[in-house]
Amino acid sequence: MSRSRQKPQLIVASRTENLANTIQSELRNSGIQTQVHWPSAGDEFGSMLASLTPELVLCEERLKDPAVEDVIRAVRDFDPDLPVLVMGDHVTLMRTVGAIDLGARDFVSSQDMRHLTLVVRRELECYEDRRRMHSLFKRAQELEARARSLLKETGDAVLQVQEGVITEINPAFLGLLGRTTDDDALIGQPVLDIAAADDQPSLKTVLKRARKSPATEIETEIRLLGKDGVTPPVQLDVASKFVDGELVTECMVRQSALDKAFSPGSRPDLFKRLQALTPPVDGSLTALVLIYVDQFDSLEERIGYLDSDQILQHLYDMLAPVQQPGDRVFRFSVSELILLVKRSSADDTRAFADQLLDVVDQATFTTAEHETAITATIVSYPLTGEERPQTLIRDMRRNAAQVSRRGGDISIFMGPTAEASERKRVADQQAERIRAALRADQLKLVFQPIASLEGEPGNLLDTHVRMLTPDGGELMAMDFLPVAIEYELMPEIDAWVMQAAVRVLGGSGDAAGLNPTLFIRISNQTLANPQTVTSIWRDAIESGQCRSEQIVFEIGEGQIHDHRAKFAALAEALQAHGGRVAIDRFGNKRASLSLLTTLQPQFIKLDPAFTRSLESSDAEAKRQFAELIETAQSQGIRTIAEHVEDANSMAQLWQLGINYVQGNHVQSTITADEPLADAISLV
Fold this sequence. Notes:
The protein has 23 helices and 29 strands. Helix 2 runs parallel beside helix 3, helix 9 crosses helix 10 (305-318) and helix 15 runs parallel beside helix 17.
């Protein structure tokens, strides 16, 4: 699609024109000279889309006419490559996933213009790259179509070879081998494979001679290995020539032509092969092996789209030495390769997958501008013939994505009898990585500020833990703590968090005027035996690294109901030394109110359902939480509302008498490496 204007045209579908004007001003101030258009009515969007031929569409999440789904559908019908960004007040994982699932490119914050500007710049550049790529691809297709047309129409059977691999084969040669264009394709296969076994040395010698003497035609007589067996001897004329600087060897036999060529390596080719599979009669098995490149999005950001695409091509090239005759490789997506292989047993299939993992781990990938290493998650699945290909591949990719998100670099073996043991094997590996991270101090603290609605002094911070990965990335707590809980590693993690928190407090000091207080969660496993954590805390107090009130022990309400006596003992021991206690996710159980009459925590963190109830019509939930808040206030217990995402909720919380709030609307997390922020007060 051609563009006559110099300035990119953007459409901002929002409830007010003011947001569109703000975005245009911010983009221009950032050096992006754009023309922003705002459809004032829902029925104007379609006509504006057709008349402007825009480069980007931004759609407000709360827009009703047209809705986000309607905007994305209209854009997809107009130009599938045209990017759509969904806007909202704050970026969350759930909102981002939801927007991408609908077909948008990303989710951006209308409150964070720096983030919005960077994403807009990226999408404009990507869209321009896609248009150029389509143009170049179209030109290449036209040139290739012309060459193939000439090759197809000739009565000679012709194939072309580069580095011993068939790069082109015309219908006449396919017919000579007893194949049709609907049959198995040969492009990408070793040329020696089309010769009878006894004649392969002769063909190899001729190919070498032809490469050494370009433009010299060499004749030989060989038998070809056709689909139905060995052919009679045929006269093969072999000659090499340079095409675009590369040496190409052409093999020609005078025979009849067939209809058209068939290219391997695509998704349709893979599914066609899977549908045509028949159970092996020699006791072997056929398997799918998925190679899922870990953290591919980060790789693209680090080395660029073009170089990251070359990585996949290099990976494809590296598979040749470990493949067996008959293995087929398909590029399923920008970050995935799928192999269809035949092996003698399930153990051989697993060994092959492990070998692929070693190949990836040991390789260094070099492009024109970068040198990098990658890791991959390998998923193998021996086929029984009962699987539905679409469902099976979807499950393999989903499994790979989940494991990759937790660090990847693992070979997974799936199948009807293998899944349970494989899940345990993967969990064992992930648990060992957590142990290694603990030994190497590869965990990290981040903090989310807790803001006072009453102007109280003090710097309250909610403490979270993340795990560093070998490639420099970070795993969120939800990605590794479930495994840590399953393998009873939480006491070690809680102890590490407590020690790290003490170091942070010792490094901040009252001299800096920060006076931070850290809320630290205590797991069920630690609550059952809290001596290690409390000893670290008491030693820090005695050594002067922190004061007793600077650490608040945070325990979930559900844990307290399960271990009420242990919690009471812990709270009593802490308070005897000046410590403080907070109950987390409070108020979602019928017995919540009774806890306040028997236990005396210094803080309660209300269940996120309370914050959500502010925007709903759940009168019962509001009444229940109002009673909890009133009881807490009467007993001097400070209340904290979590997951506060907008200013309207904050105003309602203030009216209800909530003391503190935390959430993305208040302030995003900060790391232990950053200076701790001054006290946050919203009044």
